């Protein structure tokens, strides 16, 4: 059971206080999008071994969504950050680079 | 025979005699006994039967690793199977019965399996019961199921209570032996909050039994002082009878405290589940002695050497008069010496090793006059239900018998394995220690915490450190590492010193004798509970089950309730030898929590009965209950299904409610409907994205029925939206959908359109809402007075605020029944009073409450869909003929792109129609309409299914809705629906609107 810190209210809490919301930083494809783009947006999810960006909601706390950067193998949490961004902030990327020098961001698609 | 010694028993209070029963026999023990030691004291070595062959099984161990001593405990609401006798503290009045035999423990018919053992090797069931296939279901499976499982399931509800407890500490020490206690002290000196858990009632672990001195004091004196020192430290909490059950992510640990098992008369919960968050976890879980694989090592009387020592020293019990010790290490000599000091006979020590010089232990044994046979082994054990002797051979040979020695106990020791379970639960890795022939924690590969650093440190025997002096030094180091990892500055103090023991290294022995043939190997047990022998593991390897996880499942090695605490390492070594690889290459199976089984009651905690899932009640709940409501669970709510009057069946009540509402006046408690306020300058735009309809064009004062789809295009909710003012909307959702839709809105606002100025609030419970339905509805409201509810002032799909009978109300002129209908919201606290007022003014108008089943029939007669009946997560609005509610003008809404996919536009999608049975009967819910031909599985092809079906009292016939292939184009066609009883019912495709298709009744 993980421990996460909600970046909105600042509370560090048990995983049971949160709800996982899957892969972060997806781009919405609506009317006019190609079948391939739409399929990718709706169904295709990365499931990396290692560094991963996820959406979480502080469902039994302040109710706000946020993002977490986490290692899926060691469960190390590199940091949590605002949901109102379409890419991880530099500060989080720096923390990941410190802990995982060999890591390179996944190219979308 | 086994018996109580006149002296000894450091854990006993001999002034407190206790009486208990085993298989109905009244026996006596002492306070401080375990059930196992008390049974041994009463010469009850035979305690059960093995799972597969029903072989006689005796007590092997003295702790949590015991595989054989499992009994049924208690009676009635306190009956529990598979209780381990070696960890069950004796109390006055304890009742236990043995398991897995018929008709009796001594004479068990199932033991015939033992004679058939040659024909029942590993994988027997897989091979035998596969052919012929039809026999599996009707013959094999019922028989195997009947013989499966140890013990009986309880039949009465659990009479005890349980609780959860949340605890936080900087350093959690699991294990209260010398290592755990010394480590706790080292950590606590830093000021860190330290919690120490010990699974047994006693502190100090094995050390007081094995003896020695620390800082010049006897070990038990040292332990006593250490415990009292820790107890005096304000930052230390000690808990015995509390097992560290499992280690989970980021320092989460479950502890299992047994509060009432040893004292059933004590008030309060029986078990307490500790939910612990620890800054750092220190595992000082000790080690478990391994059996030796030799023929007949499962005969009652063959025990672990350490267990024999425990029974003599701790409980003053002699397991037998004559004990042969068989070993591959020095440690077992302690048993021979302890037996000698207790005045018992040790005819020989068979030591498989060949040493150049005698070890100190050997010298001591010889000095006591014990015969030590180096390089010797057990060829086979003599006896059936009790050991009568051993045949001795050379370890290096094939088992040729050199001599036979009469004895009634064989004390065996194959070396010690650290208890690495808790280290491994959350991913801690192991390494193979060649010298001591065991796996121990690889401290460089600890389980990782949130900060990326290891959060578990092993100490003492659990770390593969086996000698007292080294254990104490290791514990101090581990304690200092643990408190530093938890953020405290360690205050170093030197470890206490014990005299070095000078043990000579052990020699690994994985088969005794080394060259044993198949006859001996097929009698050499690895797993006592599941009857897995050396020959079975070899067969598994031979048949290609080479992976340790495959071999485990093929043979069931380590799959019993003891989870292979004794058998795992011997099994791995046997598999490694059979595959001709090194043991570390075979690896271990996965260690999973809990360490030993914990009660389901403890896991459930307080969440039983009424508090399992709290109910949501509307403000009028008590009125409904007092007026005959039969409840229907809807989400967490309870809604009245129907209000039964005396002499009425539920069906009759529903029919009455429908007729009364159509003819006169019905009242529905609609408070459970979701009510979500959406407010802000961007609210119109936001609702245009959420609903398939255009909501931005709705005028204040008006209502509109709307549909909500998921981004995948499927219909997820529906309801009426009222525009309160320019930037405020009130969205009604289904009863079950309020929280879900509120979260759906929040998710899109927070994660996609976060720059839009909109707030949403779920106000469902702020209002009581009452639907006033029927031809007399307006008259009733006019009698209350206060606002104009006439046709011109408040037309269909209008809403208005005002007062009725002095109550501040919001009135919605909406209808889910097809009747003249008002849904009226008042403050929740006024709900009951307003309901009462309506019942008073409506008394002579025929006012009558109606429930959810009546609501369903009313809406079905009108062809209104219900989320969850007409929809199932695969239905789009277009399937339901709701195209009119889908805006063509909007560029985008959630689900629009999805609905443009080819599959969604497929003309062969089943579409909504009404169904009328030819004979007027009610179609079975969920029934399928069959089509010509069969599918690939030989099943009838289908062309539609029933989604809602009722008896309509208005039409006095069965009516239904369903989804049918090309349905709307096939009006008048007759479909066939098979019933479960094999008969078929015919139904005609009709319009789903059965009643008042022009809507004249609701528009008055």
From TrEMBL, chain A:
Transmembrane segments: none annotated. InterPro entries: SoxD (IPR006279), SoxD_sf (IPR038561). One of its GO terms (biological process) is tetrahydrofolate metabolic process. It comes from the Bacteria. Coiled coil: none annotated. GO terms for molecular function: sarcosine oxidase activity. This is Sarcosine oxidase subunit delta. It comes from Sulfitobacter sabulilitoris.
UniProtKB/TrEMBL annotation, chain B:
Residues 620-890 form the GCVT N-terminal domain. Residues 911-996 form the Aminomethyltransferase C-terminal domain. SUPFAM superfamilies: Aminomethyltransferase beta-barrel domain, FAD/NAD(P)-binding domain, Folate-binding domain. InterPro entries: 2Fe-2S-bd_N (IPR042204), FAD/NAD-bd_sf (IPR036188), FAD/NAD-binding_dom (IPR023753), GcvT/YgfZ/DmdA (IPR028896), GcvT/YgfZ_C (IPR029043), GcvT_C (IPR013977), GCVT_N (IPR006222), Sarcosine_oxidase_asu (IPR006277). Transmembrane segments: none annotated. One of its GO terms (biological process) is tetrahydrofolate metabolic process. Residues 522-604 form the SoxA A3 domain. The keyword Oxidoreductase applies. Residues 170-422 form the FAD/NAD(P)-binding domain. One of its GO terms (molecular function) is sarcosine oxidase activity. It comes from the Bacteria. Belongs to the GcvT family. PANTHER family: AMINOMETHYLTRANSFERASE (PTHR43757), AMINOMETHYLTRANSFERASE, MITOCHONDRIAL (PTHR43757:SF2). NCBIfam families: soxA (TIGR01372). This is Sarcosine oxidase subunit alpha family protein. It comes from Sulfitobacter sabulilitoris.
């Amino acid at each position: 059971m993980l421990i996460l810190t909600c970046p909105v209210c600042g509370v560090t809490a048990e995983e049971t206080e949160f709800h996982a919301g899957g892969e972060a930083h997806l781009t919405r494809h609506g009317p006019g999008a190609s079948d391939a783009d739409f399929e990718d947006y709706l169904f295709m999810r990365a499931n990396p071994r290692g560094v991963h960006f996820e959406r979480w909601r502080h469902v039994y706390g302040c109710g706000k969504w946020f993002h977490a950067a986490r290692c899926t193998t060691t469960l190390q949490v590199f940091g949590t950050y605002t949901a109102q961004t379409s890419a991880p902030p530099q500060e989080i990327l720096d923390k990941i680079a410190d802990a995982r020098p060999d890591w390179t961001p996944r190219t979308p698609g | 025979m086994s018996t109580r010694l006149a002296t000894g028993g450091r854990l006993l209070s001999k002034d407190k005699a206790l009486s208990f029963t085993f298989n109905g026999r009244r026996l006596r023990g002492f306070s401080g006994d375990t059930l196992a030691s008390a049974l041994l004291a009463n010469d009850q070595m035979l305690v059960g039967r093995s799972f597969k062959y029903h072989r006689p099984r005796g007590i092997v161990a003295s702790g949590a690793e015991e595989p054989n001593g499992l009994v049924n405990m208690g009676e009635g609401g306190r009956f529990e199977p598979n209780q381990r006798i070696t960890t069950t503290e004796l109390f006055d009045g304890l009742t236990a019965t043995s398991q897995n035999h018929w008709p009796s423990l001594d004479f068990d018919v199932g033991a015939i399996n033992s004679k058939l053992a040659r024909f029942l090797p590993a994988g027997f069931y897989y091979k035998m019961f596969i052919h012929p296939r039809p026999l599996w279901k009707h013959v094999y499976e019922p028989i195997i199921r009947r013989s499966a499982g140890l013990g009986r399931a309880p039949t009465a509800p659990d009479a005890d209570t349980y609780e959860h407890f949340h605890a936080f500490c900087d350093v959690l020490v699991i294990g209260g032996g010398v290592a755990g206690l010394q480590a706790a002290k080292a950590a606590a000196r830093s000021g860190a909050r330290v919690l120490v858990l010990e699974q047994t009632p006693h502190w100090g672990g094995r050390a007081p039994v094995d003896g020695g001195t620390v800082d010049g004091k006897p070990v038990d004196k040292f332990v006593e002082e250490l415990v009292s020192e820790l107890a005096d430290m304000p930052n230390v909490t000690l808990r015995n009878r509390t097992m560290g059950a499992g280690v989970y992510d980021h320092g989460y640990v479950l502890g299992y405290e047994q509060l009432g098992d040893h004292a059933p008369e004590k008030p309060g919960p029986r078990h307490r589940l500790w939910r612990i968050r620890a800054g750092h976890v220190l595992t000082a879980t000790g080690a478990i002695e391994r059996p030796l694989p030799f023929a007949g090592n499962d005969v009652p009387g063959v025990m672990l050497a350490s267990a024999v020592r425990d029974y003599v020293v701790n409980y003053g019990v002699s397991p037998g008069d004559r004990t042969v010790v068989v070993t591959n290490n020095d440690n077992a000599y302690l048993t021979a010496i302890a037996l000698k000091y207790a005045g018992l006979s040790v005819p020989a020590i068979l030591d498989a090793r060949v040493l150049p010089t005698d070890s100190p232990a050997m010298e001591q044994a010889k000095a006591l006059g014990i015969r030590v046979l180096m390089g010797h082994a057990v060829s086979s054990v003599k006896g059936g239900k009790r050991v009568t002797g051993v045949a001795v051979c050379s370890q290096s040979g094939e088992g040729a018998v050199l001599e036979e020695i009469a004895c009634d106990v064989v004390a065996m020791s194959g070396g010690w394995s650290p208890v690495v379970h808790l280290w491994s639960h959350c991913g801690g890795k192991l390494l193979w220690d060649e010298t001591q022939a065991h796996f121990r924690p690889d401290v460089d590969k600890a389980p990782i915490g949130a900060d990326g650093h290891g959060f578990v440190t092993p100490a003492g025997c659990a770390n593969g450190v086996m000698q007292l002096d080294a254990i104490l030094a290791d514990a101090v180091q581990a304690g200092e590492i643990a408190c530093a990892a938890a953020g405290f500055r360690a205050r170093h103090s030197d470890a206490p010193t014990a005299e070095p023991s000078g043990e000579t290294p052990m020699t690994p022995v994985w088969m005794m004798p080394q060259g044993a043939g198949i006859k001996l190997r097929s009698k050499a047990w690895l797993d006592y509970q599941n009857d897995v022998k050396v020959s079975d593991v070899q067969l598994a390897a031979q048949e290609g089950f080479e992976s340790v996880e495959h071999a485990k499942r093929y043979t069931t090695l380590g799959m019993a309730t003891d989870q292979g605490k004794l058998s795992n390492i011997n099994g791995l070594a046997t598999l490694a030898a059979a595959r001709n690889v090194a043991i570390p290459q075979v690896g271990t199976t996965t260690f999973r929590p809990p360490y030993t089984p914990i009660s389901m009651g403890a896991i459930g905690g307080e969440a039983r009965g009424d508090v399992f899932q709290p109910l949501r009640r509307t403000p009028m709940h008590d009125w409904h209950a007092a007026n005959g409501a039969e409840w229907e669970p809807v989400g967490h709510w309870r809604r009245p299904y129907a209000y039964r009057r005396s002499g009425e069946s539920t069906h009759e009540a529903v029919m009455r409610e429908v007729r009364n509402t159509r003819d006169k006046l019905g009242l529905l408690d609609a408070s459970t409907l979701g009510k979500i306020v959406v407010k802000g300058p961007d609210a119109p735009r936001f609702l245009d994205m959420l609903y398939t309809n255009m909501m931005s064009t709705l005028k204040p004062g008006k209502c509109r029925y709307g549909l909500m789809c998921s981004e995948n295009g499927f219909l997820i909710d529906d309801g009426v939206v009222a525009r309160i003012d320019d930037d405020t909307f009130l969205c009604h959702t289904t009863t079950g959908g309020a929280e879900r839709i509120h979260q759906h809105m929040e998710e899109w606002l927070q994660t996609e359109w976060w720059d839009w100025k909109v707030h949403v609030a779920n106000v469902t419970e702020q209002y009581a809402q009452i639907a006033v339905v029927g031809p007399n509805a307006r008259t009733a409201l006019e009698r209350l007075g206060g606002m104009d509810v006439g046709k011109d002032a408040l037309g269909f799909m209008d809403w208005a605020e005002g007062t009725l009978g002095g109550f501040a109300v919001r009135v919605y002129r909406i209808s889910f029944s097809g009747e003249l209908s008002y849904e009226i919201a008042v403050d929740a606290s006024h709900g009951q009073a307003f309901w009462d007022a309506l019942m008073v003014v409506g008394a002579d108008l025929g006012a009558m409450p109606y429930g959810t089943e009546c609501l369903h029939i009313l809406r079905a007669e009108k062809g209104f869909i219900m989320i969850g009946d007409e929809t199932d997560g695969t239905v789009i609005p277009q399937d339901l003929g709701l195209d009119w509610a889908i805006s063509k003008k909007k560029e985008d809404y959630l689900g629009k792109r999805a609905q443009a996919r080819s599959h969604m536009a497929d003309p062969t999608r089943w579409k909504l129609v009404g169904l009328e049975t030819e004979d007027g009967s009610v179609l079975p819910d969920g029934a399928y309409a069959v089509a010509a031909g069969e599918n690939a599985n030989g099943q009838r092809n289908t062309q539609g299914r029933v989604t809602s079906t009722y008896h309509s009292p208005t039409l006095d016939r069965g009516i239904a809705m369903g989804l049918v292939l090309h349905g709307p184009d096939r009006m008048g066609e007759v479909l066939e629906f098979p019933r479960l009883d094999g008969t078929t019912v015919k139904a005609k495709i009709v319009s789903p609107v059965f009643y008042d298709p022009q809507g004249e009744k609701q528009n008055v």
